[in-house]
Amino acid sequence: MSEDEDLQDTEKVRLLFFTSPTCFACPDVERVLENIAGTTMKGMLHVSTIDITEEQEIAAQYGIMSVPVVMLNEERIAEGMITEDVIREKLWSSILPNMILSDRDTRRKESMMILTKNTISSIISQELVRENLGDYVHISTYQQVMMSLLALDPLIPQLLYQSGRELGMYGAAPYYLTVLNPKVGAVKPEERFQETLIALALLYSRNNIVPLYQATHCDIAKLEGYTATLRIYELVNSAGAINISEPLCHYTAGEIAGTVEAMIGFGARVIETKCKGLGDAYCEFEIEVFQGKEPGKVAYRSMEIKEEDKKIKFLGDFPAEEYRRQLFYEFIHETTQHGYNSLKMTESLRPNDQDYVHISSLQQQIISLKFRDKFCGALLYSAGRELGVIGPAKNLIYDILAAEQAELPIDSLKQATEIIRQYLTHPTNYLSRSHSFVTVQDGEDEDEMYIQIHECAYASGANLSETNLNETLCDFQSGYLAGRLALILKDPPIVTETKCHGTGHNYCEFRIEKGYSFEESDH
Q1: At a CB cut-off of 8 Å and minimum separation 6, what does 90 contact?
Q2: pLDDT for the residue 375
């Protein structure tokens, strides 16, 4: 192993992997750890491999009697035959609570202000960010990000709520409300609350003043003092969704809460009580303002659904967390298939409106989460990779393989990259307006390739290069490319964004490197 001080590394998640030369299961576990460290959590994870026959004192210190054992920050999280899903689940379960409570990344407010400026220019001034595509993207692109994140861990809803709340506080919504209803500046707080609700109902209804197209219509279903209920129809988060016995619009709930706090000056809480994900025909949000409470200080709370009230019953034997993940995989496949049908114009996700939303809605979701915590980029990458592996439209890739008479797995990184380029430029993918043209460039050797994606919906117009941020933004896209490539390559690749609109470039570039070789080594 490395020097003992490596065990005290506080900048990365620290994993200890205990092994021995005679351990038959250890090589497989080591491959899993190498894959995670080199792909999903590249740069975020520090793995120390400890041979218990050579480091007997350290093994004794941690009470290791048999191998393999994996420890995370002093806690034993897995032993024996360990799958990649188990390790990922344990990692996120450990990291997410700190991400939710994180208040260290002061860049969040700055990123929201920059994005607000770009959004207002596009929406209000009608200055096109994407000259070839226009500034609207298919709602399936937005939904895929949200659904893939939710599938990772049951704590993700709270993280999305907190990110949405910060967007409501520092994003463009307060400005939009003043444009839609100048009376939101009323002197009395209770009147200001009422006018804010009227403005929110206009914002979440189709209008030509702020044409975000986040929903088709919104009503104020109830208003009593400092409590209210907003009813929103065909919201972008859940339009076309199937019933999975969970609400889905956590980000919107947080954004409404943050917007109310910004307009009223008091803390607020918003709970989604009805949703397409619960089998309802619309989404409903209960809003409560706490007079005298500081904005951002009201504790998060979600709707509690009793097992007997769930419309989907589970009769299996494996853990609830695994069932939830499998249910979300089915949800992702089903909902994105509806989105795919919408792109082919054989189905409509929002029968009363178009199936497109302004790119700022997608970018706000990505950027507010990206700058919440140093690990959120890895979270987005992981979600994108999951979608790349399990998501729909894999048949398009297999059709390209058949046309080129290529056999799986593919050894050539160049050939695999070209196949993914053809997949990304398939007419159906163009219809999503998630990007325009795609080019491929050779790297320094056969183990390196580059893909350039132009007018990427995740980052177009979000130039952070003249600020302290100056970071790439398309972690989700990086993960998605890695997942799609993993379907056809022998070894999972490493995908890193090297250029981005966020760093001042006019396209997004992704370096693709040959992944770890999983050939067995001697132990």
Answers
A1: 72, 77, 78
A2: 83
